[in-house]
Amino acid sequence: AELVEIYTDVEGIMTADPRIVSNAKILDVISYSEVCQLAHKGAKVIHPRAVELAMQKNIPIVVKSTFSDAPGTKISNSKREAGENAVADRLVMGVTHLASVAQVIVTLKSELPSNANYTVFKVMADNGISVDLILSLIHI
To answer: Is 7 helix (H, G, I), strand (E, B) or coil?
Structure first.
């Protein structure tokens, strides 16, 4: 395929969830990488696997509405394409959130036994708390 068109109930990929951010804007263009990051972090307009498959074959995707003639959002390898709403100067492409997700920082003292981190994760697991990311900092 030369292009994949995905029709949905919105006119394209937006900078934020319009139900939460009233002045969210429709993006004209976004890269595969950027839209994957948004999708993995909670944006529900497109599944990240669909983007990954298109990216492997370098097939552009256009997300557009079934209810309007708006051009939608083009997802491609191009970092930015020229256009009326070019966004090359933006530091942030979009904002997402995941409900019921919290960031917890646990600091263990160096004098604790080496299995102390196991105890922390065991308590979390016993209480049905899912862990998505673990960063381990070692102080020398």
So the answer is: strand
User: Which residue(s) pair with 76 in the sheet?
Assistant: 31
Provide the greatest CA pair distance for the chain.
Answer: 64
Pull the structure tokens for residue 51: 């983007």
pLDDT at 88 over 80: no
Strand order in the sheet with 29-31: 4-8, 61-65, 73-76, 29-31
Instruction: Decide: 14 and 27 in contact? Cβ < 8 Å.
Output: yes
DSSP three-state, residue 57: coil
- Residues sharing a CB contact under 8 Å with residue 121, sequence separation 6 or more, in sequence order: 131
Handedness of CA 84, 49, 46, 7 (dihedral sign): positive
For 29-64, the pLDDT digits (tens) are 998 888 888 887 777 778 888 889 999 999 999 999
74-77 own/partner pairs: CB under 8 Å, 24+ apart? 74/28, 74/29, 74/30, 75/13, 75/29, 75/30, 75/31, 75/32, 75/35, 75/46, 75/51, 76/29, 76/31, 76/32, 77/31, 77/32
Q: What is the pLDDT of residues 131-140, one digit of tens each?
A: 776 666 555 4
